Amino acid sequence: MDMECIRERDGLTFVFHGDIDEYACRTLRGEIDGEIVKRSPSVVIFDLGDVSFVDSTGLGLILGRYKKLSAAGGVLRLKDVPQQVDKVLRASGVYSVVEKVK
Amino acid sequence: MNTGNHMKMQIPAYGKNESFARNAVAGFAVECSPTLSELNDIKTAVSEAVTNAVVHAYDAESEENLIEIAADIDEDNTLTVSVRDFGRGIEDVAAALEPFFTTRPEDERSGMGFTVIETFMDEFKVDSAVGKGTTVVMRKRIGKDAES
């Protein structure tokens, strides 16, 4: 798993490459939260176009960031969601709270 | 139609083995000629069961804390996978199967692992004994999409 963070004027985009599983989430969580605390973005985008795999721990990562951001008045969007990822997210009802964008 | 097949392996309950385990079972299942979607379903379900064992079954990631994974392919192209640990066991299996149930909300566990397994496989069952361990058995018939 590799992740890049792109800083924009009032937003942050995290670009993920590879598998988002429990092992990957152990480090991803801290890295993402560190950037968010530093920059207090109003919009955060998770670019998932190059994600090869997600399971329910990845779902926990998304929901956890959503809760923190929305408590601070921010928004989380999921970009370019691949098929396998989409199926896991649909099964868990994430889209009722987090917006999916192209 | 094929003659069936069987595999069994033991790995330490290390986080890094979550990826190895799901890819190993997916590699075994290739014999059934699954679609990409079916292969992803199998990988996801195996990952959930193995992650449960890594996160919940044992107190530490050490070499003697094992996960045993077995898989069978039978003559009608049904894949059966069992994921077993020898750890603490689940006190209330019925509660654990409920969506969003987790014993570790502070770690941001989604509590959706068993729900994902249920969604992605045809059937599954959980046997657990406190202090002895947990076995998750799941089954999926491969090739249904192509037949219908």
Tags for this entry?
heterodimer, A: 102 residues, alpha/beta, Transcription Regulator spoIIAA, 5-stranded mixed β-sheet, 3 helices, 35% strand, globular, B: 148 residues, alpha+beta, Heat Shock Protein 90, 5-stranded antiparallel β-sheet, 5 helices, 35% helix
Description:
The complex is a heterodimer of chains A (102) and B (148). Chain A is built from 3 helices and 5 strands, in the order E-E-H-E-H-E-H-E. Chain A has 102 residues and is α/β, with parallel strands linked by helices. Chain A has one domain: 2-Layer Sandwich (Transcription Regulator spoIIAA), CATH 3.30.750. Chain A has a 5-stranded mixed β-sheet. In chain A, helix 1 (22-39) packs parallel to helix 2 (56-71). The longest helix of chain A is centred in the N-terminal third of the chain and has 18 residues, at 22-39. The model of chain A has no long low-confidence stretch (mean pLDDT 95). Chain B is of the alpha+beta class and 148 residues long. Chain B has a single domain (5-147), classed as Heat Shock Protein 90 (2-Layer Sandwich), CATH 3.30.565.10. Chain B has helices spanning 17-29, 36-57, 93-97, 113-120, 144-147; strands at residues 5-12, 66-73, 78-85, 123-129, 133-141. A 5-stranded antiparallel β-sheet of chain B has the order 1-2-3-5-4, with helices on one face. In chain B, a hairpin with a 3-residue loop joins strand 4 (123-129) and strand 5 (133-141). In chain B, helix 1 (17-29) runs antiparallel to helix 2 (36-57) and helix 2 (36-57) packs antiparallel against helix 4. Chain B is globular. Chain B starts with a strand and ends with a helix. The chains are: A alpha/beta (102), B alpha+beta (148). Chain A binds chain B through residues 19, 21-23, 26, 29, 53, 55-57, 59-61, 63-64, 83-84, 87-88, 91-92, and chain B through 15-16, 18-19, 22, 37, 40-41, 43-44, 47-48, 51, 54-55, 108-113, 115-116, 119-120.
